[in-house]
Amino acid sequence: MKFGEKLRELRKQKHLSQTELGAAIGVSLRTLRGWEVEGRYPKQRELYAKLAEVLGCDVDYLLTEKEAFITDSADRFGYRGERDAKALVEDLTGLFAGGQMAEEDMDALMLAVQEAYVEAKRRNREKYAPKKNRSAE
């Protein structure tokens, strides 16, 4: 189940409208609709904690490893990092669609590729970004 589907289901269980949930966590109705309908994700990690608190669930339920990777990439590398991470997750997910690989192996491969991606981005930043623009990690 995707983040937006989980969010909608939990919100309805709590009998909250999108407007009410948005007000409770400090985001607009448009933002909440983007999460539920358009497949977007919260940009700040603390929003997951606020959602989990209001909806009475565990943060880990809302934040899968794939979503955590996308959010972390956005935090570390900005819009391009988020865009690239989403594309990478979609491409890898497509590779697994045939069902020929065990679930544990798919997870291990996904994590290995994610780690390689982050390391490559870090190296490129060190190599090509001007020293004054590099952020401490």
In brief, what are we looking at here?
The protein is an all-alpha fold and 137 residues long.
Topology of helices and strands:
Blueprint: H1 3-13, H2 18-25, H3 29-36, H4 45-55, H5 59-62, H6 65-95, H7 103-128
Helix pairs in contact: 2-3, 6-7
Percent range for β-strand residues: under 5%
Give the helices and strands as they follow along the chain.
HHHHHHH
**Structural class assignment:** mainly alpha
Structural shape: globular
Task: Write up this protein.
With 137 residues, the chain is mostly helical. It folds into 2 domains: 3-59, lambda repressor-like DNA-binding domains (434 Repressor (Amino-terminal Domain), Orthogonal Bundle), CATH 1.10.260; 65-132, no CATH class. Helix content is 72%, strand content 0%. The chain has helices at 3-13, 18-25, 29-36, 45-55, 59-62, 65-95, 103-128. α2 packs across α3 (29-36) and α6 (65-95) packs across α7 (103-128). It is globular, with a radius of gyration of 17 Å.
Keywords, please?
single chain, 137 residues, mainly alpha, 434 Repressor (Amino-terminal Domain), 7 helices, 0% strand, globular
